[in-house]
Amino acid sequence: MTQIALVTGGTRGIGKSISLALKNAGFLVAANYAGNDDAARKFSDETGIATFKWSVADPDACAQGIKEVEKELGQVDVLVNNAGITRDGFMHKMSVEGWRAVIETNLGSLFYMTQPVLEGMRSRGYGRVINISSINGQAGQMGQTNYSAAKAGVHGFTKSLAQEVARKGITVNTIAPGYINTDMVAAVPEKVLESIIGKIPVGRLGEADEIAEAVLYLSGPNSGFITGSCLSINGGQHMG
Ligand code: NDP
């Protein structure tokens, strides 16, 4: 039977590559996004993948959005918690709004998105949850206390939930990308980016497709013995 995959932030950047890789592998894919309707329309026209607009930082919107996905496509077998934002700034200048937006979008969303799909996965005895973290949640990064804290939280969430649902045939894993060639990294000032690339042993940024390949593997039936793990995909920049 065709499996259903839901990818948050699935219309641009890394999420777009993940949505496409899953579709090409035979999944029926729902791609969620927040507000960029033009990008979502273009993505949907190009790929034929259904798009669904809601903010993953809003618990009620997540519950409602997932209901719509399930009504249109069916119950979710694979959830990829990919949506994320940055609001960079040094701690002493960071606003409460900038703190909360990043924590809620990158970490709160894991609870809001995963809880509504978990009961179905438990009752079917199968599920895959893949959470996208970041090298900066592992190593820390100045100017990103909010983002690093949220992404570090993703690792704790993954390991705890993995233990709770392991006997139910559900795996929960984290992928921690390094610097990947997307709009998010395009926003980094050129000088800073040059210095970042200088610290990547393979000498280049990663590509979104390289993350999507790993998500695809963790989404499949052959990865059932991998749970609570973190796969770092960062060109050797951080090996902790
Ligand atoms: P992009 O900025 O290119 O795309 C972000 C996607 O997330 C968009 O589809 C956006 O929707 C969606 N999104 C943002 N906020 C929300 C929200 N509140 N609700 C629903 N969707 C939302 O990001 P990347 O592809 O670069 O990053 C994807 C993930 O990978 C993020 O979690 C990021 O933290 C992580 N990551 C990225 C790295 C990189 O180098 N790029 C490195 C390490 C981790 P819309 O199009 O509507 O704005």
Quick overview of this protein structure:
GO terms for molecular function: acetoacetyl-CoA reductase activity. This protein is of the alpha/beta class.
Describe the structure.
By secondary structure, the chain is α/β, with parallel strands linked by helices. It has a single domain, classed as NAD(P)-binding Rossmann-like Domain (Rossmann fold, 3-Layer(aba) Sandwich), CATH 3.40.50.720. Helix content is 49%, strand content 15%. The chain is globular. NADPH dihydro-nicotinamide-adenine-dinucleotide phosphate binds at residues 8-9, 11-15, 32-36, 39, 55-57, 82-85, 105, 132, 134, 177, 179-180, 182-185. Residues 3-178 form the Ketoreductase domain. This is Acetoacetyl-CoA reductase. It comes from Thalassospira mesophila. Keywords: Oxidoreductase.
**Strand order, sheet with most strands:** 3-2-1-4-5-6-7
Q: What's the main sheet like?
A: 7 strands, parallel
Q: Tell me the CATH topology.
A: Rossmann fold
The helicity comes to 40-55%
Pfam family, one: adh_short_C2
GO biological process, one term: poly-hydroxybutyrate biosynthetic process
InterPro entries: Acetoacetyl-CoA_reductase (IPR011283), KR_dom (IPR057326), NAD(P)-bd_dom_sf (IPR036291), Sc_DH/Rdtase_CS (IPR020904), SDR (IPR050259), SDR_fam (IPR002347)
Domain Ketoreductase: 3-178
